[in-house]
Write a structure and sequence with these properties.
alpha+beta; Aspartate Aminotransferase, domain 1; four-stranded antiparallel β-sheet; globular
């Protein structure tokens, strides 16, 4: 499934129930790629789509899926791929796109992110 999607890259051969992959847009540095994939992982978790983790394989940061539930269906995995791509294609990480300007304020030691429109 990952091999069939040009925006995703398998990072390691699949071993039993572990799949390591990353969302890889063209022309993005490794540091930015790590930030993008970390944000994708966090958003997948926060939205309740999937609980995946991250790891580094041979120096490459990637998303790690451990398929442990015997009730996991292909539809579940297709949803994970679809949502990974959807989150990767949003404009939040593209430097030339301004969906909204944000400012970080420090207030009594707390960091607060404020969205300005």
């Amino acid at each position: 499934m990952i091999d069939a999607e040009p925006r995703l890259k398998p990072v390691a051969p699949t071993s039993i129930n572990i799949v390591c992959y990353c969302y890889q847009p063209a022309g993005v540095s490794n540091d930015k790629l790590k930030a993008i994939n970390t944000e994708i992982m966090l958003r997948l978790q926060e939205e309740g789509t999937a609980i995946i983790s991250d790891t580094t394989v041979h120096g490459a940061y990637c998303l790690r899926v451990a398929i442990n539930n015997h009730r996991t269906r292909y539809d579940d995995l297709r949803l994970l791929i679809k949502e990974t791509i959807r989150l990767g294609e949003t404009d939040w990480y593209r430097p030339n796109t301004r969906a909204a300007e944000t400012k970080t304020l420090l207030l009594e030691g707390l960091s607060i992110c404020v969205q300005l429109n």
